[in-house]
Design brief:
globular, four-stranded mixed beta sheet, 39% helix, single chain
C-alpha cells in the first residue's frame, strides 16, 4: 500500500488499471480526451502489480493524491460537471 500511496502522490492524476479491462479503457480514454496526462500503472503488466493490488477493483483513480474511485464515480463526476474543476484544482488541466 505504501507504494500505491507514493505513486498516487507523484502526479496530478494516477490511474491503476488492467490492460484487458474495458472500464479501465473508458476511463483512460476520457482523461486523454480531456487533455489530462495521467500516469497509468497497468497492474497486470507491472512486476510489482501483485503488491500494488492486482486483485483490487480497477480502475482506481487518484486525483491530487486522493482516491476518487472507479469508473462509476469518475463518470458521475464528469456528467455532473464536477470532474474538470477537480482536475483544474489538482493542476491536471490548464484552461
Amino acid at each position: 500500500m505504501d507504494n500505491v500511496t507514493r505513486l498516487a502522490s507523484q502526479r496530478a492524476v494516477v490511474i491503476f488499471s488492467r490492460s484487458s479491462c474495458c472500464f479501465c479503457y473508458s476511463v483512460k480514454s476520457l482523461f486523454h480526451e480531456l487533455g489530462v496526462n495521467a500516469a497509468v500503472h497497468e497492474l497486470d503488466e507491472d512486476p510489482r502489480g501483485a503488491e500494488m493490488g492486482r486483485r483490487s477493483p480497477v480502475p482506481a483513480v487518484f486525483i491530487g493524491g486522493k482516491l476518487v474511485g472507479s469508473t462509476d464515480k469518475i463518470m458521475t463526476l464528469h456528467l455532473g460537471g464536477n470532474l474538470v474543476p477537480q482536475l483544474m484544482a489538482a493542476g491536471a488541466l490548464w484552461l
